[in-house]
User: Fold this.
Amino acid sequence: MDTLTARFKLIVLPFLCICLLFLPFLQATDFDYCDNKGNYVVKVDGVDISPNPVISGKPATFTISASTGQAITGGKAEIDVYFFGFHIHQETHDLCEETSCPITVGNFVLSHNQVLPGFTPPGSYKLKMTLSVLI
Assistant:
């Protein structure tokens, strides 16, 4: 592997899993790391959901305030959705479409817009976001 390839090798943040817990018709924006002892490149400061509560069939914005100690040139965000513990949906987004790249050392915001289908039933939803970054 040449030096350039090694330098830009895709690094999966040591299993960074930002677990967002929310009820689409109630208000909750708690988050947890999948591994509380993990040494992550990205540190999450907070999560904001707007509107809160989310309304099915209407656009919603999920904003994650975060910081990094290393410059990030790109990557991907994988989102898994669970309903009462059952995996019901997965999507992957280019990290640079969710925030401005390159991401410099310091604070940044990751923002994702989503329209929940009109048939989305009320209940307990869990979103798990895994970031894989290029540094």
User: Anything to note?
Assistant: The chain has one domain: 3-134. The first strand starts at residue 10 and ends at 22. The mean pLDDT is 78.
